[in-house]
Amino acid sequence: MIVLASTSPRRRQLLEMLGIPFRMVAPQIEETLGPAEQPEGYVTRLAREKARAVAARERGAVVVAADTTVVLRGRVFEKPATPDQAVEMLRRLQGRKHQVLTAVAVASDGRVEHALDVTDVTFRRLSNQQIADYVATGEALDKAGAYAIQGKGAALVEGIHGDFFGVMGLPLRLVLDLLARFGVPYRFTR
Among all residues, which ones are annotated catalytic? Predict the structure, then answer.
């Protein structure tokens, strides 16, 4: 049995899209950036902690976990807590290229492996009104970097170089590679 250590509807949607049978369990870990922690290490640590936490409760299961953050010039943009924070993030990102980092970890019976996806996303130049209008949709508030590329946030994007699914929060190619290492190869038919 595969367990997705997440409550993310986007991650659920991506696994369902591939027809992978799974169930979801909330990982319940603290997600705090350490004072000297680098973005790559941060998302990797969180993905591994989520996978370990759920695997400890789900003996015998193969647990998939992920963590995503947005980085602009070394600064981490997590999920905004307020609409004002979302507006500020989007103002900083508009007209610029940033990176979306998504780490994936798979754990089972004490073993944990991980992989990291880094995708470049370039935002269009946006007016303050466009940013305010997007934030008013409510979509920005539970997303790293304050946008959902698979939703209305697509209108903010000029282009991407890398894995669209990684920007959504679950780079499927990495998930499938890691699952195969744990003896769960992907099959197009079940």
Answer: 67
